Amino acid sequence: MRGLDGKVAVVTGAASGLGEATCVRLAEEGAVVVGLDLAEPSVPLAGFHRLDVTDEAALAAAFDAVAEEHGRVDVLATFAGVAGGGPVHGVAAADWARVIAVNLTGTFLTCKHALRHMVEQRSGSIVTVASVEGIEGTEGGSAYNASKGGVVLLTKNMAIDYGRLGVRVNAVCPGFIDTPMFRAVLGSESMAAFADEYREQHKLGRFGRAEEIASATAFLASDDASFITGHALVVDGGYTTGMRTGLSSLMGLD
Predict the structure, then answer these.
(1) What's the angle, vertex CA 233, arms to CA 231 and CA 236, rounded to 5?
(2) Candidate list 144, 162, 198, 239, residue with the active-site label
(3) Can you tell me the mean pLDDT for 137-165?
(4) Taking 80 as the threshold, does the pLDDT of residue 247 lie above it?
(5) pLDDT digits over 224-236, tens only?
(6) For this structure, is 162 an active site residue?
(7) Residue of 63, 128, 148, 177 with fewest CB within 10 Å of its CB?
């Protein structure tokens, strides 16, 4: 993949799941990778800052430290996130606020402080992490749907505002990916039947793997995507392509 060798990349949510897989992939492509998370990553990185993405002062200090140590900030990938939702009439205001704070406001704050350096450089690539649940609604999705839909539109806004300054901004929208957070939500016995239904609605017949999202993120961050900005790249095994009823079985397509 072209254009990542030697680039300084910051990844939030770096300690597990999609963020960890992306740290590994970017490092394999030759990037200098710095992780941000509440927990320390188990994979080797060029740097790590323990912080909460809702803490603006900590984010500002972390990006300043990255720029001071490595000379620049070339790439940002925003994987920090939490699950949450339910039917609106039953969602506690505090639970709603927590999901919005981490997933949407945390993305805004992280991008804000990466952009300070990218604007000065007049170059950079940001990959926000939305979801298929930011593209279409899901049952009981409320807070999570709202937060990820906000990320998609924030991404488009930043692409408009910063494109002439040499900064590209895109979103990756994963389907249902086998990660620790996914297993925490759908791994219980009561959710088993729903997990099977979600799997069936992925037209490839399986859930995604973390490294598949990492590959898409690396592409969007790289110079191979140099003419792509403001795009929400759906990586979902066909989940959002349309309804599958099983009729294809009658046509011999199983």
Answers:
(1) 160
(2) 144
(3) 97
(4) no
(5) 999 999 999 999 9
(6) no
(7) 177
Is the pLDDT at 162 greater than 90? The verdict is yes
Residue 188: how many CA atoms within 13 Å on its side-chain side? 4
**pTM beyond 0.90:** yes
Domains and CATH numbers, the chain: 8-234 (3.40.50.720)
Which residue has 């910063």 as its token pair?
162
Quote the CA–CA distance of 92 and 178 in Å, as a whole number. Answer: 28
Phi, psi angles (nearest 5°) of residue 194: -70, -35
Cβ atoms of residues 35 and 11 within 8 Å? yes
Residue labelled with tokens 């009658």: 250
The pair of three-digit structure tokens given for residue 73, joined into one six-digit string = 């900030």
Taking each helix axis from N to C end, the angle separating 56-70 and 106-121, rounded to the nearest 10 degrees, works out to 30
Three-state SS string across the chain, please?
CCCCCCCEEEEECCCCHHHHHHHHHHHHCCCEEEEEECCCCCCCCCEEEECCCCCHHHHHHHHHHHHHHHCCCCEEEECCCCCCCCCHHHCCHHHHHHHHHHHHHHHHHHHHHHHHHHHHHCCEEEEEECCHHHCCCCCCCHHHHHHHHHHHHHHHHHHHHHHHHCEEEEEEEECCECCHHHHHHHCCHHHHHHHHHHHHHCCCCCCECHHHHHHHHHHHHCHHHCCCCCCEEEECCCHHHCCCCCHHHHCCCC
